[in-house]
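Issue 218. Parser rejects a valid record. Input:
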Amino acid sequence: MSPQLIARPVQVLAAPGDRHDEILTPAALDFIGTLARTFASDRERLLKERRRRALRLAEGYPLDFSMVTRRIREDAHWRVAPPAPGLADRRVEITGPPERRMTVNALNSGARVWLADFADATAPTWDNVIGGQLNLLDAIERRIDFTTEAGKVYRLATDRPLATIVVRPRGWHLDEEHLEVDGRPVPAALVDFGLYFFHCAQRQIDAGHGPYFYLPKLENREEARLWNDIFVLAQDLLGIPHGTVRATVLIETITAAFEMEEMLYELREHSAGLNAGRWDYLFSVIKTFGHRSDFLLPDRARVTMTAPFMRAYTELLVRTCHKRGAHAIGGMAAQVPSKDPEANEAAWAKVRLDKEREAEDGFDGSWVAHPALVPLCREVFDGVLGDEPHQLSRTREDVEVTPSQLLAVRKVSGPPTPQGVRTNVSVAVRYFAAWLRGQGAVALDGLMEDAATAEIARVQVWQWLRHRQVDRETVLALLEEELSALVAEFPFAPLDEIRALFERTALATELPLFFTPDAYTRHLVRTTERQS
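Output the parser choked on:
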């Protein structure tokens, strides 16, 4: 018997917005309700397991490759599904929030893939969440455009291929407070996934692609298995063949780095590969081991992808992916163009070196945050790939990575500089201000930053305070200086809210796992309620 939608109402707690009825249809809400009722308890169980494991690691339990899943790693025969239509060649991927202008620019950018980001690059106001879904629907229907106040018109190109859309839903740790089922908020990941899948999966198939996703902040194979179960049910509910969904997992937690092969295995029918992040990965290292002095990180600018423990992580990722026929996608180039030619030249040279390292290491593609970087990244990967779509044949059998290498943070550990402390306070304050006004992707100091940057900035401050590398009075003084500078630029910035958010998430004795749940429930949801 085919599965049936559970026809119980999902309650919408926000006021109607322009065209929201096109997304929040009764059938779409029933689909979301079915997903929530089927999988919410599994999600809660896995979040509890995250907390339990974090306590065990904090108490000294060793982090190692699992003996339980050794047979998966040692079985040389299994492979993930072959590349899906539109995902065979991923040499350049551009990322950004599904805002209207970004949608047009990203699809026109010349990148092979656009990561439409409902997670770190989107502040989850209700209008951003539903507006993003509308923009994706309009883009797939080829009816999207955008006109600036100056009269400049942005339209989808008709003379060249558009980027393949890959959606990143929010992480498992977040709820969507504007939708309730059985009196409880719907997991935000199921909202972002479910609305896009319901409205766009068949449309994408008809257009020659499919419903493709990036999965953020997973910590273990069980969390990957949960997503696979969701994909299976969603395909069954809408009559779509199994394996049509494809998903790339972001390896951005230290525990996931020890289960890369297992995560590919759990998703193998639906897998599109793995991606190597940077700030989220460092953020996870501090969350997991920040109480230990041998994991004390210096200024984040000094912890590059060539640091020994980062190098071990990326080389293992390429080795793991290519062993199983999966794409390995490199990290972000976040630089944005400047009006200063010399600054651009220096920034572009740095990007080139980073992309050359990735291409030479065997990555099949990489991320950029701005369309201006697409030609540079493409040129670098063209030089290695030529006419081939990827490097899956480079199995990197020379790579052998041990647990101690993945955890060798001490080789780059050290105290912060005064400028490093100030930079983290400044970035956190300015990003919080933007996020609270509904902006998730922010240009700061020549880089396009998202929530991951604010997370690493505030947890580094917390770690330095814990290990007495800086004193609380110094941080508080810097905080007030940065707030004063902020109000000079944005006179109506909510200084009290920003200060309180920084103090709760960076200065507390116990480190909050994420700043976003706190900021969301205290500020963004309340703002929506006031507007209603």
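Fixed in the parser; the record now loads. The mean pLDDT is 95.
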